[in-house]
């Protein structure tokens, strides 16, 4: 007996249900594959850039953003463990005509040391006669990408910003070994120090060790001779730190894609379960002809496997296309800012592609397993009886297992992060989803008992079916529950996050206007004389200046931001969380990330490396920071200047006099430097731009929500189409009993509304719980910040009512063909 046409041909006959299942698996696989491909491409490009910059260096001496004493170079170069040492001054510099966020990476180098440690970055003079061009103080060499970005070529002149001044340089050649997409400039280190106000300062020292010295052996001895805040790292440390920073964001997106894939598995389950109902007589005849239960089970699994395998293959192909589009539109960080400025190139990944194809196959097999098992266990005689579909789908679920999974989700929330990932939070989300699905039949039966016993006949019939066969609710509502839970959880988390960010910005931006000379990391700054000028501009009541620096507290960890600004004694002008405890030492205020990453607590005395010396400071309070997940420390500007001697500033908050004209004051402030040097922003503009970036960051999650909702609704339509076809005889009997097609249509509408209502109600409850897990566990452990709960009640209510109404309409439209059949023909098989 040839069984392939019997079973696999069924997929073609029920094209709509197969298409929905296939589409869900394709989207789940594609989204996961796209996130994986984009992140791998970005990280690969980032690592390639670091390898180029490090060259043959075994170790790197690194310090804070402001640099460290250049005398360290001579001390290290004379050590017996060190064969070669190459000093580097690294700056991010704006050029004349650049956009606000555009910078050029400038490296001040010792050409002779560079040739021995990092020869790939050696500059090449445009003229062979000018062999000493790299030593000239007004010469700079640009990579091809930098020349393209600036629209310049060798022989041209460019202006680079130092502080609020612009310095003119001549492009003397290019950097042949630089990456094609890296905007890089190289110049003599002495010239860079002089032009950019960094005399006596270095950013890093690349060390090439002697042949018989291992990096692990040399590192402790070399570290012991360095001042506080200057560390020795391996060149790969920055890549590892970037990977760790972006990993949580990538894993969160991947798990959202996995939930879409899970929804696809539910749709396969729904389609297969209803296909089993519709084909029960066919299976009974095959069993009567000698088909073994195991063979029937295997072929039904094969149907789901075909859908899953095809979805996996197409999903991987679509994922590559989505990855290309995401790189073009959002960049290598998918809008999150981890790899900004990179231009990664996609590469096909055979192993990852095979894994995602296997995941699609697994989703199809998992979805088909339970219907296949139930079909194989039903006896042929029972399957031939009218009403047998109730036996197949009339299960009451597994309430005790469902409750156990819900209880397990609470325990999972208490699991600490493992290798920086909130695996306990992810396990809690999985337990909540699985437990909710297992409780669906019980919830359906409970809702049915609450329905009024009197009323129109269609309503009473719909309620009676819900009571008699609550297992139908699982089939029709499982996909709805999953998609609604995902959408509700993300809506609650995103709304809470967005509202918290908005409140945070309002508290951090109290001034009337803000002025800055460039990005925090750039070479632009406000010197002390300019600060005095700003404060005396007509219309300015007062000005608060801010200095941005960073500290290296531990090897292997990313630098911690240090922000010096005017802070009230009780910290009331900061977005504080928790109590305030003042001490005898100068106060610092730490972000929430410092608790998780370094274990600091309020009231604790800590030693910070400031100006090369360890200084004891008192942790007075904790503030909320949504800008940095690696940790941040705030200190009063007066204390910072007294302890470091650094009197520069990066930006200023300007408070205007009561009668001042904002536009006139802004014009007067920007006129103090050259055109385009000083940037003026209003708090409303900064908040609007920040929230725009926020929305871009969550663009992928919005897409996943929309996809999940569409899939859930499609699942309802497919479920009722198949179920209505299996209930033709029931509809015929109802017609004989006097019901009109219109009444049967109303009955189907109410059944669809009830099934969707069960899924929506349970999904909203599950989504609320998952939203809390995302806020309190996943976000806190992934990104080290908290947020206030904000539930978008109106949006969720409108969403729920709309989905129930659409489900009712989908049920009626799906059952129209079955209702058209003649009543006598419909019941003829039972006579």
From TrEMBL:
Gene Ontology CC annotation, any one: plasma membrane protein complex
Extent of the signal sequence: none
Pfam family, one: FtsX
Subcellular location: Cell membrane
Keyword Transmembrane helix assigned: yes
GO BP terms in the entry: lipoprotein localization to outer membrane
PANTHER family in UniProt: LIPOPROTEIN-RELEASING SYSTEM TRANSMEMBRANE PROTEIN LOLE
Family: Belongs to the ABC-4 integral membrane protein family. LolC/E subfamily.
Identification of the protein by name: Lipoprotein ABC transporter permease
Provenance organism: Dechloromonas denitrificans
């Amino acid at each position: 007996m040839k069984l392939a046409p019997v079973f696999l041909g069924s997929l073609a006959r029920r094209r709509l249900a197969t298409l929905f299942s296939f589409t869900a698996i394709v989207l789940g696989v594609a989204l996961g594959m796209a996130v994986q491909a984009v992140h791998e491409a970005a990280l690969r490009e980032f690592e390639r850039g670091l390898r180029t910059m490090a060259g043959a260096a075994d170790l790197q001496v690194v310090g804070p953003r402001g640099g460290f004493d250049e005398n360290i170079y001579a001390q290290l170069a004379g050590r017996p463990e060190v064969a070669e040492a190459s000093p580097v001054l690294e700056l991010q510099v704006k050029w004349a005509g650049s956009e606000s966020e555009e910078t050029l990476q400038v490296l001040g180098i010792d050409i002779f040391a560079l040739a021995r440690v990092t020869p790939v970055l050696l500059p090449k003079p445009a003229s062979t006669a000018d062999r000493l061009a790299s030593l000239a103080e007004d010469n700079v060499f640009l990579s091809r990408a930098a020349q393209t970005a600036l629209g310049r070529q060798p022989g041209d002149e460019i202006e680079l910003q130092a502080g609020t001044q612009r310095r003119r340089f001549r492009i003397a050649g290019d950097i042949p070994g630089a990456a094609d997409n890296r905007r890089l400039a190289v110049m003599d280190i002495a010239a860079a120090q002089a032009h950019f106000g960094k005399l006596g300062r270095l950013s890093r020292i690349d060390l090439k060790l002697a042949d018989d010295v291992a990096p692990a052996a040399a590192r402790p001895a070399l570290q012991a001779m360095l001042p506080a805040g200057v560390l020795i790292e391996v060149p790969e440390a920055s890549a590892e730190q970037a990977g760790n920073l972006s990993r949580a964001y990538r894993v969160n997106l991947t798990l959202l894609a996995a939930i879409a894939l899970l929804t696809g598995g539910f749709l396969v389950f729904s389609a297969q379960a209803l296909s089993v109902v519709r084909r029960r007589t066919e299976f009974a005849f095959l069993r009567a002809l000698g088909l073994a239960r195991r063979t029937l089970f295997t072929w039904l699994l094969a149907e789901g496997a075909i859908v899953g395998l095809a979805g996996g293959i197409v999903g991987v192909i679509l994922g590559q296309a989505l990855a290309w589009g995401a790189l073009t539109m959002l960049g290598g960080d998918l809008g999150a800012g981890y790899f900004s400025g990179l231009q990664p190139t996609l590469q096909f990944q055979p192993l990852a592609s095979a894994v995602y194809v296997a995941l699609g196959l697994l989703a199809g097999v998992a979805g088909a397993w339970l219907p296949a098992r139930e079909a194989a266990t039903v006896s042929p005689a029972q399957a031939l009886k009218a009403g047998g579909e109730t036996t197949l789908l009339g299960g009451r679920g597994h309430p005790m297992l469902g409750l156990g999974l819900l209880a397990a989700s609470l325990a999972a929330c208490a699991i600490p992060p493992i290798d920086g990932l909130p695996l306990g939070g992810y396990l809690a989300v999985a337990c909540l989803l699985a437990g909710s699905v297992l409780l669906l039949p019980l919830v359906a039966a409970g809702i049915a008992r609450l329905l009024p016993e009197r009323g129109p006949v269609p309503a009473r019939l719909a309620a009676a079916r819900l009571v008699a066969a609550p297992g139908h609710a699982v089939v029709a509502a499982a996909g709805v529950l999953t998609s609604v839970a995902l959408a509700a959880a993300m809506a609650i988390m995103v709304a809470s996050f967005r509202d918290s960010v908005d409140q945070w910005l309002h508290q951090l931006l109290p001034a009337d206007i803000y002025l800055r000379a460039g990005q925090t990391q750039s070479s632009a700054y406000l010197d002390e004389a300019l600060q005095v000028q700003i404060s005396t501009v007509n219309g300015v009541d007062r000005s608060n200046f801010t200095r941005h620096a960073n500290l290296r507290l531990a090897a292997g960890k990313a630098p911690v931001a240090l922000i010096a600004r005017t802070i009230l004694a009780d910290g009331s002008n900061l977005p504080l969380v928790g109590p305030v405890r003042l001490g005898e030492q100068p106060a610092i205020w730490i972000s929430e990330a410092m608790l998780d990453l370094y274990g600091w607590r309020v009231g604790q005395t800590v030693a910070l490396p400031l100006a090369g010396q360890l200084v004891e400071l008192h942790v007075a309070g904790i503030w909320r920071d949504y800008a940095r997940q690696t940790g941040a420390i705030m200190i009063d500007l007066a204390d910072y200047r007294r302890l470091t001697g650094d009197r520069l500033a990066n930006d200023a908050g300007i408070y205007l006099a009561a009668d001042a004209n904002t536009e006139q004051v802004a014009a007067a402030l920007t006129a103090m430097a050259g055109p385009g040097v000083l940037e003026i922003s209003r708090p409303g503009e900064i908040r609007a731009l920040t929230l725009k970036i926020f929305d871009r960051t969550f663009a992928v999650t919005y897409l996943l929500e929309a996809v999940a909702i569409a899939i859930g609704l499609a699942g309802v339509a497919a479920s009722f189409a198949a179920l209505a076809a299996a209930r033709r005889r029931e509809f015929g009997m109802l017609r004989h009993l006097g019901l009109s097609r219109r009444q049967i249509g109303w009955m189907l509408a109410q059944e669809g509304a009830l099934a969707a209502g069960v899924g929506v109600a349970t999904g909203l409850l599950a989504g609320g719980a998952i939203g809390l897990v995302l806020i309190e566990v996943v976000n806190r452990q992934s990104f080290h910040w908290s947020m206030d709960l904000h539930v978008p009640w109106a949006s969720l209510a409108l969403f729920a009512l709309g989905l129930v109404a659409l489900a009712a309409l989908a049920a009626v439209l799906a059952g129209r063909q079955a209702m058209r059949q003649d009543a006598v023909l419909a019941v003829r098989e039972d006579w």
